[in-house]
Amino acid sequence: MSDIIKFIVMVITFYIIERMVHNIHKEKLDENATDTNYSITLPKAIIYVFSLMFIFGIALFIIFFIIKMTGNETITGGHLWLALIFSLIGALLVAWGVKWKIIVNGEEIEIQGLFKGSKKIKVNEIEKAVIEKKQMNDMGEVERVIIYKDGKKIIDVEDSTLNYSRLINTLKSYGKLS
What we know:
Elements: H1 2-24, E1 37-41, H2 44-69, H3 77-99, E2 101-105, E3 108-112, E4 118-122, E5 128-136, E6 140-149, E7 152-158, H4 164-173
Antiparallel strand pairs: 1-2, 2-3, 3-4, 5-6, 6-7
């Protein structure tokens, strides 16, 4: 019985974490954004897909749990763990998607990640930026810009992100795009 209580506590904890992270992401796009002050974020659709992954994992857990409680021996603890791990991965992806952001404020670029914290650089410190295009099977062409500083890749940003075109314009205006 104590294992069942642990599972229930874990599910509730995962749900609370996912809701907190989801509420953080509810901020609206800044309508006052300009070509020199803006944020680059992931599209909300990606966040929704990650949220669905989390919810699907929780739903699987509940279904497996109910079936297990009816005495069906074909459902094991492994099924419950699989569902919890699946939902945990979804929750972590939601957290990453919400936290990941690039903020351009004039000549300063701030890169925010989930685990590494925030990194600030000046646009003038960027060594170069390279646009790379890749053909995806039936999905068309994907473009991304890779930003280098001191010979090392700092970050790559795909064209699916919000305000990608503004980033390209900023890099062009400073002569960093090759």
